[in-house]
Amino acid sequence: MITKTIKIGFAPTRRVLCTPKAFNKDEAFRVKNEIEKKLHGYDDIEIVNLDSINSEGLLYDVADAEKAAKLFIDEKVDCVFVPHCNFGSEEAVAKLCRAVGKPVLIWGPRDDSPDENGDRLRDTQCGMFATTKVLMQFGVKFTYITNCTMDDEEFVRGFDNFLRAVSVVKAMTHLRIGQIGTRPEIFWSVKVNERELMEQFGIELVPITMTDLSRLLTENMNTNKEAVDKEAASLKGRFPETDFPDESWANLANLKITLRLWAEKNGLSAIAAQCWKPMDTVAGVAPCFVFSELTGEGLPVICESDIHGAVSSVIALAASRTDARTFLADLTIRHPSNDNAELLWHCGVFPQVLAKEPAKAVGRHFNRQNPAVGQWELKHGDLTIVRFDGIGGKYSLLFGEGRGVDGPKTFGTYLWAEFDNWPLWERRLMEGPYIHHCVGIHGKYAPAIYEACKYIGNVTPDPVTPTEEEIRAYLL
């Protein structure tokens, strides 16, 4: 499951050779304490420091690198933050970071002016030039924030982006996706290579047949009926204008609870499901609305057995640090009067929590005519679009940003989205290894997804707008 909290291995460093003036260790200790104090002001991170390694809590002796690495590994940190409190210890930092094998953030506070005698206490920037070179020699990938103060916008923006990138990397590590049934027969575009996903990304698929799902639904209805009845009453009360029989509400509630329990038991971060006739038959309802409910609660459930869509949803949700909710959309038609806008649509699986107006009713499926699908337009605002896909053993991640705009009403769940250059998006989608499905999420997360690709490996970042150059400029 995707969690918001990031555990940081805090490894402030100083140079072992010091004098009362150059690389002053008391000044380095003061800076370390100041940085750590400000980090404790973040309520969504957990700090593992080096106070148990030596009396200063600073990394300066290469002999401490192994002990620090063991500490961070034992504590299961998600990343390593190496603020240079003066020049720093390049060899100790490189050994530590290579051993831990997690995303690395390099930064140091901007030095004060030389004193009246011309003496300098830290030379922080100079040391980071050395450290980053040695990290590259060791094959360690890292993120760098411009030499500035912690109060500068450059640090605030860069640190937030790093945490979001780490969240994506964390979510992709040992990722488990539930697979319910098989793909629809005519949907060749959602075929995936399970072996490649495991070998290249460590992604595990946890399959369940429709027969087994039917058994779980029966068991849950018999043993957990009180919870089913309570959920059914809640759903019915939220949509008083919907005229479904009580049996349909009970089936919807039972499917929702059963899938949630199955996901929790198996440690799933997302589910990709067969959603056509077999699911209707087994569940007694169209599952679209249930999928939207679970997705709105932070467990993306992807229709049409789109496993790559499930991976895309995990990436997008993690980039938001679970502050937003995802939706899987068909890229459907161009806007009738806006050449840069496109209809993002699906039968009725967009979460109700994202609706533009309070949703008062759910309806019957537009072609199957059975309960239940959402019927609402999504709220406007900034959007990030994500699509993980691959062909021939090569994988890429398409992403970029747009915004919701006005457009004609249609059925199901939908949003008209405007982009800076839709024809460019269209061509990239057509000529890349992508399909008509994409994941949307409210917010602007392209820089975080771009940075995460550095650490995921085996995936090529494919930003559309903003471009790679624009993202790199944003991160300066």
Q: Could you tell me the mean pLDDT?
A: 95
Helix content: 25-40%
> What proportion strand?
15-25%
Derived from helix and strand composition plus strand pairing, the structural class reads alpha/beta
Please give a structural write-up.
The protein has 476 residues and is α/β, with parallel strands linked by helices. The protein is 39% helix and 21% strand. The chain has helices spanning 25-39, 65-74, 90-100, 124-137, 153-172, 194-201, 210-223, 225-238, 246-266, 277-283, 288-296, 307-319, 422-431, 446-456, 468-474, and strands at residues 6-10, 45-48, 79-83, 104-107, 143-144, 176-180, 204-208, 270-273, 301-302, 326-334, 341-346, 362-364, 371-374, 376-377, 381-391, 394-405, 413-418, 437-442, 459-463. A hairpin with a 7-residue loop joins strand 16 and strand 17. The longest helix has 21 residues, at 246-266. The protein is elongated. The mean pLDDT is 95.
Task: Describe what is shown at a glance.
With about 475 residues, the protein is an alpha/beta fold. The chain contains 15 helices and 19 strands.
